[in-house]
Amino acid sequence: MLSLLSLRTRIAGGTLTPQGALALVREAIAAREPEIGALVSLDANPAVPTAGPLAGIAFGVKDVIDTADLPTQMGSPIYAGWRPKADAPAVARLRALGGVALAKTTTTAFAFMDPTETRNPNAPGRTPGGSSAGSAAAVAAGMLPLALGTQTGGSVIRPAAFCGTVGVKPSFRLLPTVGMKCFSWSLDTLGLFAATVPDAAHALALLTDWPEIERAGDAVPRIGLLVPEFCAEPEPDGLDALHRAARSAEAAGAVLRQLALPPLYGQAFGLHGTIQDFEGIRALAWEYDHRRDALAPLLRDQLDAAGAIPAEAYDAARRVVRAARSGFRGVLAEAGLDVVLTLPAPGAAPQGYASTGDSRFNRLWTLLGLPCVSVPVPGDGPPLGVQAVAPFGEDARALAAARFVERALAR
Q1: Position 218 pLDDT exceeds 90
Q2: For labelling, which of 3, 19, 233, 375 has a CA lying 20 to 30 Å from the CA of 265?
Q3: Per-residue pLDDT reduced to its tens digit, 89-124
Q4: Residue 11 sits in which domain range?
Q5: Domain of residue 165, CATH code
Q6: Catalytically active residues, by annotation
Q7: Distances, alpha carbon 287 to alpha carbons 186, 209, 270, 284, 291, in Å
């Protein structure tokens, strides 16, 4: 994979120019994109800044996020060729830092579950996941050092685990979702993909102008090992990856304890669909009312059913989730823990391309708005990963714990 920090070190040291860094990316795209299909469009002649902390660093943009100089097509024929007038703020920020918005990456239609044509670069014959399929696959294939994605259920963390790269879903609203096609205003979260945890931490620190995100130090984390009982039994390979990561972290000095969540969290988990779908039918009201037949089939069926959700059920779900959000920090504090280590998916990416996989190990954390980081777990088979989760606003803590696990696994 292309490492953002390695490229920046070479540029700063004078052994690589910003133009040379972009040329490396283009070579990688030419070599791998024909087999993977991670990109929707490519800027043939982008401006390459020579100044800024990301000068010459190419990044991909999930195709539900606006770009002024490339189409934003939502993975749907309804928006074929559509050209926004402005960049989304996150894209504008990366450009201001010197980054090059080189490509739009594939997305499932409106970031729902209908699969894309993208192929998994590290697990032939298996789904790359979704909905941020292209961003995860492009970074995992070494075609881009950085890519933006979005998560409403599990659309950053799960494809990162399936493709074998690092994915970060920050705390809710840490990154602006302005200029991003809305599916659920209570859940939609902008995230990113990178080759390593330090790469991801650096990118997030620059995006937010919050240097502390990558300055969490080397404190040994107190980790709660969690397999949520309300998520149903994970697959053996997923559980094995979690236990291998836990053993590695413990051998490196981490404090490790089993964690069980109070019943409130199982109740909240079961309400994700109520909130997502109640908001989804409203966020996509124009598309549903005027172009229903052009909607992808899984999305169309979901919206058909969503119209029957009463406002009372939505309000009741929000009250439960609000209580769970406010109480999570206390759950960890009472257990004497800093972070949770859990599964990012039931197991390896499913065979075939009919499904983007199961988001059940992601939904609760998205509901609670918590920072999550997916870390690959090395092995001989298809990619597997683990997920570090921290309290709301503790993105630096989540990244530091993920970095600790990443280093422990590398040993």
Answers
A1: no
A2: 375
A3: 999 999 999 999 999 999 999 999 999 999 999 999
A4: 4-214
A5: 3.90.1300.10
A6: 62, 131, 155
A7: 20, 36, 27, 5, 5
